[in-house]
Amino acid sequence: xxxxxxxxxxxxxxxxxxxxxxxxxxxxxxxxxxxxxxxxxxxxxxxxxxxxxxxxxxxxxxxxxxxxxxxxxxxxxxxxxxxxxxxxxxxxxxxxxxxxxxxxxxxxxxxxxxxxxxxxxxxxxxxxxxxxxxxxxxxxxxxxxxxxxxxxxxxxxxxxxxxxxxxxxxxxxxxxxxxxxxxxxxxxxxxxxxxxxxxxxxxxxxxxxxxxxxxxxxxxxxxxxxxxxxxxxxxxxxxxxxxxxxxxxxxxxxxxxxxxxxxxxxxxxxxxxxxxxxxxxxxxxxxxxxxxxxxxxxxxxxxxxxxxxxxxxxxxxxxxxxxxxxxxxxxxxxxxxxxxxxxxxxxxxxxxxxxxxxxxxxxxxxxxxxxxxxxxxxxxxxxxxxxxxxxxxxxxxxxxxxxxxxxxxxxxxxxxxxxxxxxxxxxxxxxxxxxxxxxxxxxxxxxxxxxxxxx
Length: 455
Known about the structure:
Elements: H1 2-23, H2 25-36, H3 42-78, H4 96-121, E1 127-130, E2 136-139, H5 141-147, H6 156-159, H7 163-174, E3 180-188, E4 194-203, E5 214-220, H8 222-257, H9 264-295, E6 303-306, H10 308-318, H11 320-325, E7 329-334, E8 341-344, H12 345-362, E9 368-376, E10 382-389, H13 422-432, E11 436-442, E12 446-454
Parallel strand pairs: 7-9
Antiparallel strand pairs: 1-2, 1-5, 3-4, 4-5, 6-8, 9-10, 10-12, 11-12
Helix pairs in contact: 1-3, 2-3, 8-9, 9-13, 10-12, 12-13
């Protein structure tokens, strides 16, 4: 340590001497010219030179010492340290003004850096920065939410095992002018749910303070991938549902044109069958169009305020003939003076008609269907409408699937009558109004669909 201090002093003395010599080169030249012209004696030149050297040494000591300290301070900053600001002397030779100017610029940079860091921290998409060893040296809040709170310092290969992604990361790490994009990367989040991301790996233009050289950005495409899957399923199911009635109609037409061409009884039978299957296709297409409108948020009628009790009373009147035909009875237990509801009346009419009609369809013979309404004020004010029927319960393991498009409970009665779209449409209508719908079904208590609509 002592040797190092002695060496530093020696180096500083040499620097000072060199600076003094350089500063006095013009004075030496002038003195030499004056000596050559006999305008100055050798003694006077020597005294003048010593005076110049002494004054220059004082100037160098005061000015360059502050500048040296300032340079040491800048070097430490460049190395990533946060050293204390050196103390500067007051006076005309002080570097304090230069330092204060630099500090103002440094504070501006620091504030901009903090602002940029804050933006990166709060980006909705996960983002990681890695060093040459592919260790995570920065993660924003979204990345912590996806991969966990203790990911700093961990290596990417220990966390993400996708070979193609790791190959891309290796290429970008080694070739700092290359960017790579993976269209799909499946990652399990903290809840053990698999999400799909599009991942972009980019090199940074310069190594950051924490050693980062690459940035990895994640864009969640899980909803888009799910939508594509649901869309494919929807078209496959729709094609299947339409194929059956079309095949029946085609068979009936071929029969009428061929073997049963002159058979009057066969004509009536097959024409009725054609009419029945045509009605089934019409009902299916109407439901598909209704579902499409709901997904596009296209209203079926203008938004108005109306009474839910009056709406349900109208539905019971419209289903009166059907209920009598099925030897069943529907009653309405309504709480009077309910608040009016604002919405598209046709949409809500269709939703509750479907629920009440299903209750008629799947209830036990000679049973009672009860429709009830009341206002619930806890925890928030909402209209509650329940439709209860008695009959074969929906199996517990099938309950979550009844909202799926084209799904029908396999061993419910009259399964062939529906398209499997009804309850999915009902759920979408209720959710459109920020409401909710639940179902309970047991052999002892029957089946109850309950709708909650916020007031």
